[in-house]
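Quick one: VOC family protein from Nonomuraea spiralis, C-alpha cells please.
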Amino acid sequence: MEITLNHLIVPAADKDVAAAFLAGLLGLDVGAPSGPFAPVRINDGLTLDFDDRHHAQPGHYAFLMDDGTFDALLSRLGADPSVEYGSGPWHGWDRRINHLGGGRGVYVRDPNGHSYEFFTAVP
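--- reply ---
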C-alpha cells in the first residue's frame, strides 16, 4: 500500500468560518460535522478538518490544481475585494498571480492568518 495523506487538522479561531472560507474559494462544500471538526473534503483522498478547540497557529497549505480549477478560483477571488491574495512570497497581497516554476500561482490569506498557495503544473 502506498502512503497518502488522508486528513490534516487545521487550527482555527472559528472552525465554521475557516472551513467556509476555504470551501468557498475552491467551490466545495463544508461537510457534516465530524466529531469536533468542520471538514472540507479536498478530493477523494484528503480532508482538511478545521478545529477551534485550541489556539489558531497560522500555517501554509499548498494545493496543486488544473488550469480550469485555477481559473475558477481566480474568478471567485476577483469577485470578493475583501479577500487578500497576491503573487507572494516577495510581493505579498498585490492581487496578482505569479509564474513560479513555469505554471501559475497565487497566495491567499485566510481569516486565521493561514497562507493558502494554489498553483498549476508547468504546461
